Amino acid sequence: MSQENIISDNWINNSSENNYNEVEKCTTKCDSKVLDSTTLAECDNKYNIPMGRTGPLVAKIPVVLSEVEVQIDVEAEIRLEESALDIKNIDKHIFLTQCKLIPYTDKLFIAGYVQKNIQFSTIECTNKTSISGNIQHTTVNVPFKCVTKIEFSKEPVYGKNYKKRLNVLDKNMLGKDNKEDSWIHYSKLYEPVYCELEDAKILETDILNKRCFDHNDISKEKTFNELVDKMVIFIRLKVLQNQQVFIPEPNGDVTMLDNCNTKCSSDYMENKGDIYNYIEVGFQPEKGMMGKEIPIENLDTD
DSSP state, 9? Predict the structure, then answer.
C-alpha cells in the first residue's frame, strides 16, 4: 500500500471519529424508558343493594346546621423569581385552615389560602426575529380570612357546665353550719361544630405591572416580575354537628327479597301499618324500597 493511501485512510478514520465525537457532544443520552406494561383483564362483580336496619330507632349522625355560599374578595401582590415575558398557565386550589362557629352566636370565622401555581416564560436569548427562553413556575399561597353571619336550619346543641355550693344547717337547726361545705360540679360536653367544603369557584384578573425593557434585547420586548392578583372567591360550605336523630319506621310499599341475594325472586307486599321488627331495607331507583328479612338467630342479642 502506498504512503498516499495510508494517509488517506487515516484521514478518513480520523474524520469519522471526529464526527462521531461531535455528535456525542451534541446528543444527550435519555435514560427514560418504559419499565413494564401489562394489559389487565376485567374482573366480574355482583351488585348488592345497600341495606340497613329499619326504625324506629335513635341514631347519632351528622346533622346539617346550615349551608352557605360565602363570597371573599382578595387582592394580592405577587413577585416572581425571574423576569417573565408572559404568563403561560395558572392553576389555583382552595385550602381551608379554619372554619369555626363561635358558640351561642351566628358568626362563622373562616380562614385559608389560595394555592396559585404560575407558569411563565423567560427571555434567555434574542435576535431580530426570535426570542428563546425557558418555562419557569412559581407557587405561592395567598391567604384570606373573614367572618360571616349564617342562618341556621337546625340549631346547634351546646353543653353545660356549672358549680353549685350547698349549705347545711348547724346542730341547733338555726343557721348555716360553717364547718361543712358541699359542692356540685357538673359538666356536660357537646359535639364540636365543623365544616365541610362543598365546592369553590374563583374569578380572577391578573394585572401585570412594573414592565421594563431588557436592554440586551434587540426586539425591545417588555418583561415583568410583579403582578397584582384580584380574586372573587365563592366557597360553598356545610356546617355540621353530630346529633341524636329519631328515625321512624319506613312507611309505604316494600318489595321483599329472598335471603340468597338481591337478584333472587321477590314477592311484592304492601306495608299498610304492619310492623316488621326484623327486616333491613334499601332503595333501588327502578324498583323503589326493597326489604329483606333477618332470621332472629342472626340478630345480636344480649
Answer: H
Whole-number pLDDT of residue 266: 43
Distance CA 203, CA 200 (A): 10
Dihedral (CA of 76, 80, 86, 91) sign: negative
Closest to 121 (Cα-Cα) out of 79, 81, 83: 83
Decide: 121 and 135 in contact? Cβ < 8 Å. yes
How far is CA 14 from each of CA 18, 21, 156, 292, rounded to the nearest angstrom? 6, 10, 88, 88
Q: Give the per-residue pLDDT at 11.
A: 52
**pTM of the predicted structure, to 2 decimals:** 0.71
As averages over each run of 10 residues, the pLDDT of the chain (302 residues) reads 56 56 59 90 90 86 96 94 89 95 96 95 82 89 96 94 86 79 90 96 88 57 87 97 90 73 43 54 83 66 46
Q: Within 13 Å, how many C-alpha atoms sit on residue 296's CB side? A: 2
The Cα–Cα gap between 191 and 278 comes to 31
Residues 157, 117 contacting (CB under 8 angstroms): no
Q: How far apart, in whole angstroms, are the C-alpha atoms of residue 232 and residue 33?
A: 44
Distance of alpha carbon 281 from alpha carbon 250, whole angstroms = 9
Supply the pLDDT for residue 20: 53
Closest to 52 in 3D by CA, of 281, 297, 291, 298: 281
Closest of 295, 229, 254 to residue 75, by C-alpha: 229
Distance CA 136, CA 38 (A): 35
